């Protein structure tokens, strides 16, 4: 009859245990909770830290856009905004409204250039990828290695030859000057080829026996199956073209032919209002970033799929 | 309806010294179910793909239905092919998969619907027509692939190991189904497999290939009873034929098969095939491999007492037993040579026992050691 009530004791000890466990470091607690090994929980903690670190620029970007002038020039700089304000955006729009070339012109140029580049790059890279992956022809190995080789050049090293080509083609100050340099995209072709390599040959052979010609196979079978790769290429190309300022600085002299990327970067470069420019640049940077973010969130899953498939991680 | 003729067909791949297909010469009759069988890399699939037009012919001619077909594109050959990995279009529904070939050939819409529904009914996949391939099981996918070939109503069906991705039960089931379809349609089937059971059960005629060469072409039973060489003998039949090395010795009372442990008299009937092996030849020229199917290695009491089998007895130790339910395979050891006997399921032997076996010399196959050619068929078929 002198039995102690066991549930109470166990409850107490559990509470005690829990209380004690809070004094232990995080990774030990993790290992206790989910029954994962200590090394694994350490790894998880490390990666969480790393992920947060990678996130910092984006957090900084969002905060900066709402910081008042005094906070922007604070030293040491802070990450979190204390008194959020919309002043920066107001200033940006005022400045844009007062400019010689209206802001909408830059925007239109960007949209137009990005759209056309996307369409053409997708078309070229899927076609090239399909042919390189599934067809046999002379000099295929050579062509492939040339594409691989061109992947290895830093963009700066080809800026001068590229300029010479653009100028000798006589397309400076046209939209073509913005678009043409991006069309030959070795990364896109390579990704596409790797992805199409995964599609079994039997599928194409079955289609051939069914009576389909190359165009039919390409448009009805290859493209739907390669959709994830197309999404990835879209993101890559979108970012490259949208953020590009080379086209605006090197290949165009007319202000009306420049893109929004150039306009934003010019805000800070312009010396006359370098201080005021900082606040506008902060707001503009956020505005520039948002389309990127949307693109990525839209295609994120497909992009990871492609990266896995093509063995590029 | 179409017959298929291969005239001395070769396939050379760049950078490889030996042709993948070497002098493939064969005529497939209209309505025949021809099975090409052989180990992987023997050229059977390459031959099929040349027939389909998916590979170029290096040398020789292919005729389909009497028409020279070497340079005809795959879609104009009027053949349908079933692939090992099904090759269904993942982005199309089952119906669209089956109908695509007809739509591309501009067959009228109501005709397409009729043919698809008829094929679907035949294969019992009518309820799957709206599904996508990803939603189907392996067996269902293979049925759809078969259906896609059926609706085309081609001159010939080509099948490249269509059952190898299915599990054992489904394989047997689908095998029966394909046999049924063939007997209903009476169209030419050319079927490639590496599985000798499939070959034996399905084919009206079997082509055994090795290293790009045809080894033997014959009906299943003939292939089993009269293999033209050691390779065919070993490839067809399960468990495998037993092989014992030895020489042919001729004595006054007839021919004997001899090696260090054995001396077994050969039946008189073989004498005419073995004449060349008689006197005067050095031992090296008389070397042979004796082949004997497991069902001709007897170990039951009746056989051991049977009068004619008396001189064909040998003593062996039991190495392993494989009970199969209907019968038991007894793996024995005869001085380093493994001998398998197909015995009664309830035979009372244990591993390690020393038992007597009867090697039925009236059922043996004799192959030349060097070339592997059958001695008993020499003169008969060649």
Automatic annotation (TrEMBL), chain A:
<feature type="transmembrane region" description="Helical">
    <location>
        <begin position="217"/>
        <end position="242"/>
    </location>
</feature>
<keyword id="KW-1003">Cell membrane</keyword>
<dbReference type="Pfam" id="PF00528">
    <property type="entry name" value="BPD_transp_1"/>
</dbReference>
<keyword id="KW-0812">Transmembrane</keyword>
<feature type="transmembrane region" description="Helical">
    <location>
        <begin position="175"/>
        <end position="196"/>
    </location>
</feature>
<keyword id="KW-1133">Transmembrane helix</keyword>
<protein>
    <recommendedName>
        <fullName>ABC transmembrane type-1 domain-containing protein</fullName>
    </recommendedName>
</protein>
<keyword id="KW-0813">Transport</keyword>
<feature type="domain" description="ABC transmembrane type-1">
    <location>
        <begin position="107"/>
        <end position="299"/>
    </location>
</feature>
<dbReference type="GO" id="GO:0055085">
    <property type="term" value="P:transmembrane transport"/>
</dbReference>
<feature type="transmembrane region" description="Helical">
    <location>
        <begin position="142"/>
        <end position="163"/>
    </location>
</feature>
<feature type="transmembrane region" description="Helical">
    <location>
        <begin position="106"/>
        <end position="130"/>
    </location>
</feature>
<dbReference type="InterPro" id="IPR035906">
    <property type="entry name" value="MetI-like_sf"/>
</dbReference>
<dbReference type="GO" id="GO:0005886">
    <property type="term" value="C:plasma membrane"/>
</dbReference>
<comment type="similarity">
    <text>Belongs to the binding-protein-dependent transport system permease family.</text>
</comment>
<dbReference type="InterPro" id="IPR000515">
    <property type="entry name" value="MetI-like"/>
</dbReference>
<keyword id="KW-0472">Membrane</keyword>
<feature type="transmembrane region" description="Helical">
    <location>
        <begin position="42"/>
        <end position="62"/>
    </location>
</feature>
<feature type="transmembrane region" description="Helical">
    <location>
        <begin position="280"/>
        <end position="299"/>
    </location>
</feature>
UniProtKB/TrEMBL annotation, chain B:
<dbReference type="InterPro" id="IPR003439">
    <property type="entry name" value="ABC_transporter-like_ATP-bd"/>
</dbReference>
<dbReference type="GO" id="GO:0016887">
    <property type="term" value="F:ATP hydrolysis activity"/>
</dbReference>
<dbReference type="InterPro" id="IPR008995">
    <property type="entry name" value="Mo/tungstate-bd_C_term_dom"/>
</dbReference>
<dbReference type="GO" id="GO:0008643">
    <property type="term" value="P:carbohydrate transport"/>
</dbReference>
<dbReference type="InterPro" id="IPR027417">
    <property type="entry name" value="P-loop_NTPase"/>
</dbReference>
<dbReference type="InterPro" id="IPR012340">
    <property type="entry name" value="NA-bd_OB-fold"/>
</dbReference>
<dbReference type="InterPro" id="IPR015855">
    <property type="entry name" value="ABC_transpr_MalK-like"/>
</dbReference>
<keyword id="KW-0813">Transport</keyword>
<dbReference type="GO" id="GO:0140359">
    <property type="term" value="F:ABC-type transporter activity"/>
</dbReference>
<dbReference type="InterPro" id="IPR017871">
    <property type="entry name" value="ABC_transporter-like_CS"/>
</dbReference>
<feature type="domain" description="ABC transporter">
    <location>
        <begin position="4"/>
        <end position="236"/>
    </location>
</feature>
<dbReference type="GO" id="GO:0005524">
    <property type="term" value="F:ATP binding"/>
</dbReference>
<dbReference type="InterPro" id="IPR047641">
    <property type="entry name" value="ABC_transpr_MalK/UgpC-like"/>
</dbReference>
<protein>
    <recommendedName>
        <fullName>ABC transporter domain-containing protein</fullName>
    </recommendedName>
</protein>
<keyword id="KW-0547">Nucleotide-binding</keyword>
<dbReference type="GO" id="GO:0055052">
    <property type="term" value="C:ATP-binding cassette (ABC) transporter complex, substrate-binding subunit-containing"/>
</dbReference>
<dbReference type="Pfam" id="PF00005">
    <property type="entry name" value="ABC_tran"/>
</dbReference>
<dbReference type="InterPro" id="IPR003593">
    <property type="entry name" value="AAA+_ATPase"/>
</dbReference>
<dbReference type="InterPro" id="IPR040582">
    <property type="entry name" value="OB_MalK-like"/>
</dbReference>
<keyword id="KW-0067">ATP-binding</keyword>
<dbReference type="Pfam" id="PF17912">
    <property type="entry name" value="OB_MalK"/>
</dbReference>
